[in-house]
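Exercise 3.2. Students should predict the tertiary structure of the chain below and write it as C-alpha cells, then compare their answer with the key that follows.

Predict this chain's 3D structure.
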Amino acid sequence: MISYIIRKEAMEVSRDGRTRILAIVMLLLGLVGLLAGWANYADQQRNAQFAQADDQTVFLDQGERNPHSAAHFGRMAYKPASPLAAFDPGAAPFMGQVIWLEAHQRNPAMFRPAADSLELGRLSNFSVAGILTVLLPLLVFLLGYSALAGERERGTLRQTLAAGTSTGKLFAAKYIVIASTGIVLAAVTIIASAVMALFSPVALSATDTLVRALGLTAFYALYVLALTGFALLVSALCRQSRTALLVLLGIWALAVMVLPRVGASVAAQTFPIPDGAQVWSELRADIASNRVAPDSAEYKAAEQFVVSRALGRDVSLAELATMDLNASGLRLEVTEVLDYAVLNNFYADIYDRYAGQRDVRRWFALLSPAIALQHASSAFAGTDFVAHQHFSDVAEVQRNNIVRVMNEDLLLNGAGATTYLAGENFWEEVPEFTYQFPPVSLAWRSAAFDILLLLLWGAIATALAWTVTRNRLTV
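Answer key:
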C-alpha cells in the first residue's frame, strides 16, 4: 500500500511546476557556484605555487650572507587551498594564506582573500554549501507546506483515510518523497564537488575524499530530514495551506537568515579576536615578561640543550664552559628555545578564542540546524579554523627548523670570526616547507558536537511531526 502512496506523492511533486522550477534553479546555482568556487580555488592554488617557487629561488640565490640575517629575512609558508574549498570555503577566506617564517617571531597568517576582495566581489563569490543551506529549506517547505493542510482543505485527506490508508503510511509516504527530493539534489552537488576534488593539483587521497564526501552527504541529509519534519509538523498544525506556507517562510527567515548572523555577531563580541597590531603588541609584551636572566639556571640549561642538540651528543655544563663557540649564535638559538613555549601559548589562546566563538554559535544552533550544518560542512571541507590551526602549527614547526639550522651553522662554524658569512651552497641545506592536509579524523573530532546536534534536530523534528500528525488526522 505504501508504495502506491509514494508513487502518487512523487507524481504530484513531479507535476508541480513550482517544484521543478526551484529544483532547476538550485541545480543551476549549484553548478555556477561550483564552477566559481573551482575557479577561485585554482587561482589561489596557482598563485600559491608560483609565489612559493619564487620564494625558493630568491632564498637560494642570496649568495654569501650571515645566517642570522637570513633568518630575519625569513621564508614564506604558503597554505594550499583545500580541494573541497570549491564546495565550502568556510572560514578559509578570513584566516589568511601565507605565514612569514622569521627568527624570534611567530607571525599570524597574511593575505586574507575576504579582506582583499571588493564588496561586489564578496557578494558574487557564493559557495555551493551556502546555496544548499539557504535554498534547501525553501524547496522542502514548498513541497511540504500543503502536504497535509492542502489535502485537508480540498477534502481529500478524509477520503484517503476513509479508504483504509493508515495515518502512519500516509505520513511515511509524504516524508519519504519530500526528504528524498532534497537529499538527491544535495547529493548530486556534493558528488560533483568530490569528483572535481579528486583531480585537483593537491588532491587528497581517494579514500579521504570519499569519506569526506559521504560525511557531507550525511550531514546535508540530516538537515533535510529536520526540514521535512518541520514542514509536515506545520502542515499538520495549520488548517489552511496558505497559513502553513507563511509560518514556514517565517521559520526559514529566522533560522537560516537571521540566527546565523546574530550568532556570529554575539560570538565575535563575546570572544573578540585581536587585530594584527594588537597581536604584535601583546606578543612582544608576553615575550618580554617571560625572559630569564643569562646567569639563571634555566638559561644555562637551555644553553646546554642547544649545544648538545647541535653536536648530536650530550654536553655537560663544565665542558660547555671550555668550548669555542660563536656566542652570538648560541644566544640567538637559546632565545628561540626559551621563547618557543611563550609563542605557542599565545597562539593557543588566540585559537581558544576561535573555539569559544564556535561554542557560542553552537548555543544558537539549538535554535537553528543551519548553524550546526555550517560547522560540520566546513570541518569536512577542511576549511574551518581547526584546519587553519593545523596549518599554522605545522608552519611554526618549520619556522623553528629553519631558524635552528641557521643558528647552529653560526654557532658551530662562526667561532672566532668577526663577521661570519655562510657559503652560497648552505641555503640548499635549509629545509623546504611542505604541508600535508590533516586526516579526516581531525574533522570528525572538530565537528562531533555539531553532528550530534544535526542528529537531534532530525530525530526531534521527525518525532514531533509524526506525533502531531497522528493526533490531529482523524477520519
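Discussion points: The chain is about 75% helix and 0% strand. The chain has one domain: 2-472.
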